[in-house]
């Protein structure tokens, strides 16, 4: 409202100045220029004509200065408003992005800790290293729980493309397998695939418990690697290493400062 009122006032002032200029010029031509004979130099009438022209010039100059000042003020005000609006939009966007990253970070930690807990319990319940075996009850109970965590990682994998956060792509090189920070979708896919192989093995081998109380853990290849920590396909390589990089990438993204536009840049 203030800008509208000042604009109207300035327009009225400019119209008044221009009108005064036009009236002065008309009077000049009417009273002096079209007179016959022409006004002679160094006379009262000649000086009056000069004064008329000077007044007209001052009026015109004042109108131009007022108009220039008004346009400058309006332009700067518009730039400040655009800056404030863009800054607010950027902050709102960053807050939403940060909330999504924090949620993903917390969900990843929670799910990873759940997987570690299942692994530790399985290690304790399958017995000593030289006689590791697993019962159907233990196998079924923990594998169903592990399947829930696998599905959570699958959900996280599908969520990554929807984040649309440029901070997560920093460090990727030509779309190839990155070092650090890691491609989150790739990392979640690897973890989810690792756990899925264990559950697929469960689906294919549950029937072997029909005529026995327990089976040797070594007969279940992927579960054995998951529990025992063998050098090939173990828990560290298939899960922990990726989780460490996922967490590092999310934490680093959250620490990236917000870059605000400069005043008048748009």
Determine Rg (CA atoms, Å).
Answer: 40 Å
Structural class: mainly alpha
Uncertain ranges: 172-180
The biggest beta sheet is recorded as: 2 strands, antiparallel
Q: Give, in order, the helices and strands.
A: HHEHHEHH
Amino- and carboxy-terminal Cα gap: 24 Å
Can you give a write-up of this model?
It contains 6 helices and 2 strands; from the N terminus they run H-H-E-H-H-E-H-H. The chain has helices at 2-33, 44-125, 136-163, 184-205, 221-228, 235-254, and strands at 133-135, 214-216. A two-stranded antiparallel sheet has the order 1-2. Helix 4 packs antiparallel against helix 6. It is rod-shaped and about 130 Å long. The two termini are 24 Å apart. The model is unreliable at 172-180 (pLDDT under 50).
SSE topology:
Layout (H helix, E strand, L loop, with lengths): L1 H32 L10 H82 L7 E3 H28 L20 H22 L8 E3 L4 H8 L6 H20 L12
Antiparallel strand pairs: 1-2
Offer a quick outline of the entry.
The protein is an all-alpha fold and 266 residues long. It contains six helices and two strands; from the N terminus they run H-H-E-H-H-E-H-H.
